[in-house]
Design a protein that fits this description.
326 residues; Rossmann fold; 7-stranded mixed sheet; 5-stranded mixed sheet
Length: 326
């Protein structure tokens, strides 16, 4: 067993390298992914080692990038596309939702589109406008797309492997403010299913469910709550489509309380679907309504205000207290 400690960004780089070595049909495409190695250096060194025909610097044209990836997938390739920043994905939204997501169904299962679209997302890095969005609910709503987000280096490595191997299109949201967080990566591990949630911390009094960048905040909240005698379980959802409702239900039947946390706005966010489903499934187990913590229903603010916009430790702990007060 070989366990290495590395940053989340490095884990994705290593995963892409492994996939490129294993399958000549795997390609990496995007703006500045080659010579520059990506603006976050996630693809650093890949073009040097695999050449310009497999790690491709594209024009600044997101619709064209995704459209080209669809064509390549139709010819048997497995393109991994990078959208440089979350807010840049919208010019490609039409290609993703009307072509990429629907081709399998339109062809009655005869055509598969194994395309991975990598999207650095979320705030916390002090970026300018259009660089700190959390649009995951827009894609989770679209049938035909898998939508996932790792919270740590180990998951980043293995979830990318699984996404590339998937015959269905996968939207792979990378929490950019966690790129430099280090964690253990076991390259010899046997990973669990891509869409199964993970219990990140055991607890008995309340469940905090989160994914991507907010898992770390929830773990910090659980540690703070423990100092006050509260036992909080943290569930890393890992997948926003499909959602592992069975794991959430199992946790809630144990703790009888649920708070869902994400950076995206609370209004019509992923937490709304989870709250509705778990209320249906666990009505007679719940001792408090399912609460949600997230961003405000407003455009992402200038960098100097983002700490007020992003859900932090205090807002999560406030929700924990409100739930336990019922």
């Amino acid at each position: 067993m070989t366990i290495e400690k590395m940053a989340l960004a490095k884990a994705i780089n290593e995963s892409l390298r492994t996939a490129l070595e294993a399958d000549p049909k795997v390609l990496v495409m995007g703006e500045d992914v080659g010579k520059l190695g990506g603006v976050f250096r996630v693809t650093d060194g890949l073009q040097k080692d695999f050449g310009e025909e497999r790690v491709i610097d594209t024009p600044l044209a997101e619709s064209g990038i995704v459209g080209t990836a669809i064509g390549l997938a139709l010819r048997g390739y497995r393109p991994v596309v990078e959208i440089q920043f979350d807010g840049f994905v919208f010019p490609a939204y039409d290609q993703i939702v009307t072509q990429l997501a629907k081709m399998h169904a339109r062809a009655l299962g005869k055509i598969k589109l194994p395309v991975v679209i990598r999207i650095p997302y979320g705030g916390g890095i002090g970026a300018v406008e259009h660089h700190s969005e959390s649009p995951e609910a827009l894609f989770a709503h679209v049938a035909g797309l898998k939508v996932v987000s790792p919270s740590n280096a180990g998951d980043a490595y293995w979830m990318m492997q699984q996404a590339i191997q998937s015959d269905d299109p996968v939207i792979f949201f990378e929490p950019k403010r966690r790129y430099w967080d280090k964690g253990e990566v076991d390259k010899d591990a046997i990973p669990g299913p891509l869409h199964r949630a993970r219990v990140a911390r055991e607890g008995a009094d309340l469940t905090l469910a989160a994914y991507g960048p907010m898992v770390k905040v929830c773990l910090e909240a659980a540690a703070a709550a423990q100092e006050e005698g509260k036992s909080v379980e943290v569930l890393d959802l890992r997948s926003m489509s499909p959602i592992d409702f069975d794991s959430i239900q199992a946790s809630v039947e144990k703790t009888r309380r649920l708070v869902v946390v994400h950076e995206a706005p609370v209004f019509l966010g992923t937490g709304a679907e989870i709250a509705a489903r778990i209320t249906e499934r666990c009505f007679y187990h719940l001792e408090a309504p399912v609460l949600r913590v997230g961003g405000y229903h407003a455009p992402y603010p200038p960098a100097r205000l983002e700490e007020e916009y992003l859900p932090g430790l205090d807002r999560v702990l406030d929700a924990v207290d409100r739930s336990l007060a019922y």
